[in-house]
């Protein structure tokens, strides 16, 4: 059985490269999900993409050491991590059915700020007042994007729907912090297989409970209909989209897991902002959506605060994570 390093690696360049690949794949994934949201239930798309994705992930397992690397001494923690990923994806995609792609993505991008906050108690990182101030500015940007000054009648989308990307960001941040911990003793391909397996289990659960669409009858909320409508057999060229989802799923799972294994959470997190301009691009190309002034202001505040956190640490020229093994795991 292959051996693993006792402490996390610190390869910032490789970690950044993997996060850029992962974010590009995520942007394509989100575009495809939104494109197909009018005809397929969310849990069916999740099942198909995960069933395809896990096949690619298992191939990567062979390259990284064989099926033996799938053994783990912390199965319960991997289950928790998998559930966090499932909740993050399902809440974001449910919102994506009714929220413009750029808006939903921008709201989600409080996640890197949350990663910075969570890294203090969980990873033992030291975050000074300037970085904490930047995090506050980023959250102000998210509040501006929520437009609380508008009445419910003036807003096109329910406040509850707008909160879904925030919930997605919170669970995503917790997942990435856990990835950093678990990456000490687990390979990226194994972490990806665990996540794909959890997606398959949850989506099959949805199928057995709501796969016939009975809970979607009479609903007028597009997000709930997207979540609960009946499974349908894909037609013609739509199989290509679904296969693309599966391939993207494998790329995303491996790239994100590898990125957070190879470099510190606070170093990697700012580079996730590349997803924002990509979301604006896809929204403009496919749905003629361009963000309004409040969304633009929020994007600038969130992006600026995240980049400040990163460059502040570059100036200080010190590691952003204490590189030690936490024996609780």
Task: Describe this protein's structure.
The protein is an all-alpha fold. It has one domain. The chain contains 13 helices and no strands. The chain has helices spanning 12-36, 42-63, 75-96, 101-108, 111-123, 129-146, 159-182, 188-210, 222-228, 238-262, 265-268, 275-287, 293-316. It is globular and about 55 Å long. The two termini are 20 Å apart. 51% of the residues are buried.
Shape: globular
Listing every helix as H and every strand as E from the N terminus to the C terminus, the arrangement reads: HHHHHHHHHHHHH
Please outline the major beta sheet.
Answer: none
Q: What is the tally of helical segments? A: 13
Measured as a percent range, the helix fraction is 55-70%
In whole angstroms, how far apart are the ends? 20 Å
Beta-strand segment tally? 0
What is the count of structural domains? 1
Taking pLDDT < 50 over at least 5 consecutive residues as the criterion, the unreliable ranges are 1-7, 317-329
Mean pLDDT: 80
What fraction strand? under 5%
Rg from Cα: 19 Å
């Amino acid at each position: 059985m292959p051996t693993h390093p006792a402490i996390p690696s610190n390869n910032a360049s490789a970690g950044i490269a993997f996060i850029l690949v992962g974010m590009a794949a995520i942007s394509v994934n989100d575009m495809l999900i939104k494109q197909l949201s009018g005809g397929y239930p969310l849990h069916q798309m999740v099942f198909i993409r995960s069933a395809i994705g896990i096949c690619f992930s298992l191939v990567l397992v062979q390259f990284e050491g064989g099926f033996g690397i799938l053994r783990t001494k912390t199965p319960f923690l991997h289950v928790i991590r998998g559930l966090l990923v499932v909740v993050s994806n399902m809440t974001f995609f449910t919102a994506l059915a009714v929220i413009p792609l750029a808006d939903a993505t921008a709201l989600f991008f409080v996640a890197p700020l949350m990663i910075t906050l969570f890294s203090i108690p969980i990873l033992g990182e030291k975050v000074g007042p300037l970085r904490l101030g930047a995090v506050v500015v980023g959250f102000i940007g998210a509040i501006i994007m929520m437009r609380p000054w508008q009445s419910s009648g003036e807003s096109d989308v329910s406040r509850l729907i707008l909160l879904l990307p925030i919930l997605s960001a919170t669970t995503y941040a917790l997942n990435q912090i856990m990835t950093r911990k678990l990456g000490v003793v687990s390979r990226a391909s194994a972490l990806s297989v665990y996540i794909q397996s959890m997606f398959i289990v949850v989506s099959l659960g949805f199928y057995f409970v709501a796969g016939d669409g009975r809970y979607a009858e009479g609903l007028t909320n597009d997000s709930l209909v997207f979540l609960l409508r009946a499974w349908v057999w894909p037609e013609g060229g739509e199989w290509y989209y679904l296969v693309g989802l599966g391939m993207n799923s494998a790329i995303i799972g491996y790239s994100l897991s590898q990125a957070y294994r190879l470099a510190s959470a606070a170093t990697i997190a700012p580079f996730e902002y590349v997803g924002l301009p990509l979301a604006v691009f896809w929204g403009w190309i496919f749905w003629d959506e361009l963000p309004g002034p409040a969304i633009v202001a929020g994007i600038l505040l969130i992006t600026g605060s995240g980049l400040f956190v990163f460059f502040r640490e570059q100036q200080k020229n010190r590691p952003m994570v204490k590189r030690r093994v936490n024996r609780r795991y």
